[in-house]
Amino acid sequence: MSDNPTAGVNREDLRALIAEELELPTEEVTDEANLRTDLAVDSLTAMEVAVQLEKKYRIKIDEEEIKSLTTLATIHQLVSAKLETAR
Amino acid sequence: MFVPLEGSWALIFGVSSGMGKETARALAEAGCNVIGVHFDLAEGQQRAEQYAKTLGGLGVEAHFFNRNIAAPRARAELVPVIRDLTSGVGPRVVLHSVAYGTLTSLLPAQDGQEEEAPEVTRQQLTMTVDVMGHSLVYWIQDLVKEALLPRGAKVFAMTSAGGTRVLSGYAPVSAAKATLESHVRNLAVELAPRGVAVNAIRAGTTITPALAKIPGNEKLIAHCQGINPGGRLTRAEDVAEAIVALSVSDSSWLTGNVIGVDGGEALVV
């Protein structure tokens, strides 16, 4: 195990997960693409992403936090932070 | 003729909350096995799993699935599961009790109005009507295709007074309910030759997690409490009991209706 707090969250894995849920090619899910405004993600699809994140990383996401799932970068941050506090 | 529900199966969309949850219990108490679909974050999912165990404790089988019912892949995945669990017979009761939509107005709120509501977007409107309205059609299509909607089956869809009346901040859901009621009528006619009944249940104002999300729900609750001729709000149990009562008949003649289960609330102004 690495000491790097984000070691558990590979950005490319995350990108692949999001792309699969959004049914988009991975290259469209850039680090900074805004899910809602650039990738046309509605609240239901955001919820799907959240449920998959919970399953894959064994974390719990609050309903309120779904709104903060705006870009791959912020999602990476959120998942990393949750895994970190879970240690 | 009345046919006991014992040993038959119910397919419930929206089983983790409100009317779907309560109807699952009432059906299970009548000996009906339950296939429940819900869509919750981890915490809600844990509660739902616990609830499935509680139903199992009533001596029936209860299988819950955490899926977005509006996603085609959820149907592709679950229809074979439904076939296996029901031994190829299909569910005798189908309940669509899905509350997932955008609560807002069609136009932006005017200055000075107490409740802030941004105007609805195309995406929100489409999503809400798809999830709370059209999804019923897609599931029925797949069940019929796979011969999993037997003669005598009953399909129920939860609607509300807001489907025909105007409630502040409810517009997208109102459109979904109007759509749902229309689908109920058309499905009733199209399924009549197969002996399957389809009805919408229009519950009165009921305190559920979905109601809690409607802007201004406190005012609505107080108003309905005041006008309901029965002197109280509707309870999820009232709806559950009505659905069980309507499900035990094998007649398909009661079909295509919007049935009020509200103590007469919608009749008084």
Could you give the topology of this structure?
The complex is a heterodimer of chains A (87) and B (269).
Chain A: H1 11-22, H2 43-57, H3 72-85
Helix pairs in contact in A: 1-2, 1-3
Chain B: E1 9-13, H1 18-29, E2 33-38, H2 42-56, E3 62-66, H3 72-85, E4 93-96, H4 122-145, E5 154-160, H5 171-191, E6 197-203, H6 209-212, H7 217-227, H8 236-247, E7 258-261
Parallel strand pairs in B: 1-2, 1-4, 2-3, 4-5, 5-6, 6-7
Give a structural overview:
The complex is a heterodimer of chains A (87) and B (269). Chain A has 87 residues and is mostly helical. Chain A has a single domain, classed as Non-ribosomal Peptide Synthetase Peptidyl Carrier Protein, Chain A (Orthogonal Bundle), CATH 1.10.1200.10. In chain A, 47% of the residues lie in helices and 0% in strands. Chain A contains three helices and no strands. In chain A, helix 1 crosses helix 2 and helix 1 crosses helix 3. The longest helix of chain A is centred in the middle third of the chain and has 15 residues. Chain A is globular, with a radius of gyration of 12 Å. The model of chain A has no long low-confidence stretch (mean pLDDT 89). With 269 residues, chain B is an alpha/beta fold. Chain B has one domain: Rossmann fold. Chain B contains eight helices and seven strands. Chain B has a seven-stranded parallel sheet with strand order 3-2-1-4-5-6-7, with helices on both faces. In chain B, strand 2, helix 2 and strand 3 form a beta-alpha-beta unit. In chain B, helix 1 crosses helix 8 and helix 4 runs parallel beside helix 5. Chain B is globular and about 60 Å long. The mean pLDDT of chain B is 95. The chains are: A mainly alpha (87), B alpha/beta (269). Chains A and B meet through helix 2 of A and helix 4 of B.
